[in-house]
Write a structure and sequence with these properties.
The protein has 10 helices and 13 strands. It has 291 residues and is α/β, with parallel strands linked by helices. A hairpin with a 2-residue loop joins strand 11 and strand 12.
Length: 291
Amino acid sequence: MTVIEARGLRKVFGATVAVDSIDLHVKEGRILGLIGPNGAGKSTALNAILGLTPYQGELRVLGRDPWTQRDQLMRDVCFIADVAVLPRWMRVSQALEFLTGVHPRFDRAKAEALLARTDIRHASRVRELSKGMVVQLHLALVMAIDARLLVLDEPTLGLDILYRKQFYDSLLNDYFDRSRTIVVTTHQVEEIQHVLTDLMFINRGRIVLGCSMDDIEARYREVLVNPEHVAAARALKPIHERQMLGRSILLFDRADARQLAALGEVRTPGIADLFVAVMGNQAGMAQGAAR
């Protein structure tokens, strides 16, 4: 089943094109990482998907128009924003009681189990919690809702590395199954590489790369080139080159694996390095067009 389908999705704020006629196709049971620099259009695209802003083009989420059918859509969708929005006066116990009463798909026992892994006390008010604890509380409440689509916009902002790892482990072990779909944006790309099934880079409102993680492993190669082979490696037209500890690391797209193996140590690039390479190529093309 297709969970999100967009054709020519576009959003303009005055003279600024935030989302520039993008196509998007997300199937059920996938975890999509939407990665881009600040101002690339990530949050605007998510807001359109969640029915929080009008848009141009065609967009269906779980078969519904998110702008005109948002009330129905949100029965099957959960959203965690980059800023927790829990009332500061509310106690943790009151938050649990509230969601138990208003959301038919809220599993209080699951929320309690998630909170038991933290230092959050039921009697505490939100304003008494640290920033990290507020994020943990928000995550526990939302992940206890049986939703078909979970949208995460910088979900671990404010958490230290230990809790970030726990969150993604919990996302895979306690929440995700083949009937649920997750869309996540984050700048901490190295931490989600093992979680994703699909990857999409967005820049200046346009999709500049979209493929599965399996495709990335088959398509891209990074080579730690032996010094005597640098010239030969450059002749194969890498899409990016960087230096590390005096060694040249070149990234290739669809290059011959046997040729690369003769040049040095070959490995699959990390998301962060691939992102830098693709964004660098986009900037180079933009400069070339301007000339």
